[in-house]
Amino acid sequence: MACREYDYAGLLAETVARHRHYAAQGEVASYIPELRKTDPTLAGCALITPQALYEAGDTRYPFTLQSISKVFSLLVALEQRGVETVFAKVGSEPTGDSFNSIVKLETSEQKPLNPMINAGAIAVCSLIPGDSVEERLGLVLKLLEKILDRPVGIDEHVYHSEQETGHRNRALAHFLKDIDCLEGDVDEVLDLYFRQCSILVDCTDLARLGMFLAQKGVTAQGEQLISPHLIRLVTTFMVTCGMYNASGEFAIQVGIPAKSGVSGGILAAVPGRFGVAAFGPALDKKGNSVVGVRMLRHLSQALDLSIF
Ligand code: GLU
Q: Measuring from atom 10 of ligand 1, which residue has the nearest CA?
């Protein structure tokens, strides 16, 4: 007799319906002007089991990866340059500061604390090999395209918007160059960073990316793209640093390796089980989607997803 799957579709629909109104408690990121245009009331969540994709709400609305890209550029840098080279330039400790803070660069051990904050991610970008920005970005896009099994592009408007206004990231990058944590040309590395942040996805893509991590680097087509060792490394960073300086609270409330971005997406991976994703552009003070965090907490409780 065939075993019936749990009513995931019903759970997701109920989750979106019950939590969408929390958007009123947050604000859409405005420091990248182009992001300001997003409707704050959008909300969606998606879950992938080994059998099927389930989704509810605004799961097909395109948005940019922003900080979620840091997970995949880190995988590319680790794969291409090796663990030792990467961790010579970036540390592995969480920070209590905001994602774009500059303060610890000078006061701590003279390298960015971890690859999930902007300073660390910019240092990691500088390690991605290639003769041009296009070639280097191509390595990140190729990884995403293999996982998602479709062509992947960037949102040119968001890219230009951040390029024109990303003065704090420029300051971080120049500081990194000064302390020998950034390889190559500062402007080229920043260009790569801004472009990777502008990669376009939707909520279902995030769930697929989560499933890839949950399956220890194996694609839906059964190809082992990244070694389980490197996947373990990045998912550990997701637990300790993936939700900015709210990672500790998220670990207690939700307990799933996750990474969020300022456009409102959250990618989560339940090891060996599911890829889960949430989207809601209104953010809390720490930069996490208000609705997204609440929806993931609800799903974690309903399905007993905490890894702890
Ligand atoms: N592109 C954004 C920035 O560098 C990414 C920040 C984020 O999503 O946390 O400010």
A: 100
